[in-house]
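User: For documentation purposes, I need each entry recorded in a consistent format: the amino acid sequence on its own, followed directly by the corresponding structure tokens. There are two entries in this batch. Please keep commentary to a minimum and don't merge the entries.

Assistant: Recorded as requested. Entry 1:
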Amino acid sequence: MREKMILLVEDNEQILRGNERLLTRRGYGIAAALTLLEAHKALDAQMPDLIVLDIMLPDGSGLDFIAELRQHSQIPVLLLTGLTTPEDVVRGLTAGGDDYLAKPYDFGVLLARVEALLRRSEQIPEKLTRDRLSLDVAVGVASLDGTDLLLTQKEFALLLVFAQNEGRFISAEYLYEKVWKQPMAGDNQAFKKTLYRLREKIKGSGWRIELSRGEGYSFERE
């Protein structure tokens, strides 16, 4: 199965590399960024499962980064920062952070917070709405303006992954593993057929599934 990917955004290279070594040893894939510009490039290259984010960065505020991120994604964010007052914590969590850890910190505590956020992010809501589209996760039914789209189990599962990650590029391999619960192993015909049927069924919904060569698929508003 695909390893969990964590994006570390930290301008102190010593802290960044220390956290990278810690999390790599625990089996996580790591993308590292020293600036917000590098963080944006990393997001464009691959969607992480978690972001560990400093607030004070040389080219801007991590809080502004979260505000922009929350317009299209609910990727969990752990704020890791030297700002330690109660007011700082409130601002960070209000801006969209999911957890807050002040520097200096214990590596064991950091690891525990990371693992807790990843577990929490795997919990799927009972219902999810994207404009006129509604997904009832409990029963596996997707509807458009209240009309059942008659999706198969795999089509629904695929739509759910897209709806949870709107606006982000997702590889075919990742989608296959999430829906079929096994590696694609070079045979993508089942994926292509399911994707084709799903695209046909959501026509007119205000959403489309785009393919960008070399980047993956994305769920976009029309």
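Entry 2:
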Amino acid sequence: MERTPDGTPVGVDDPYAVAGVCDHLTDDGRCRFALTRAGDDPEFAAARRADGYACHVGPDDAWRRCPHYRSTTDGRECRRCGLEEVRIAHDDTRPLVEEHHLSYGSADGTESPGGGDDPDVAADAGPHEITVALCRWCHTKVHKSFARIDDDPSPDPEAMAARERRRSREQSESAFETASERYDGRE
């Protein structure tokens, strides 16, 4: 199983098996990185420009071959147990669902998975930023035990209770109160 720089597990053997579509891929199959950040990697951008800015990875989803691949989460639902995030506006309480990094390659790409002598595995151009959303409870289980991202658990009872408290608070915040009702007796 892949590990963080501190040695704790990240919950997967191959981050690319869990990763989604590249964040830089546009709906029409072009590379947004080459379109908007050409100055960051002029050689890469020139190659994409010569090919009409088409994503060079193609439909086989071998994302590890792209030096600018990035797959980050929207953070709305736990990938492991399905717990949905409930955020209250203007509230700085800790989120129920957090970003969990799956890829911890070094700056020169030597710790990134894949490649090697296996011709069936594409060479890894990483390190790549690959994240998924995990609730706080699953996040802890993954890092402190052998829990895996692809397990199919039910949400932790404590997580369900926290979500329901937030939903109740959200519903009470959305209830209509006149200003005189809300501020009655306050000066």
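Summary note for entry 2:
Helices lie at 15-18, 32-36, 42-50, 136-144, 157-174, 179-182.
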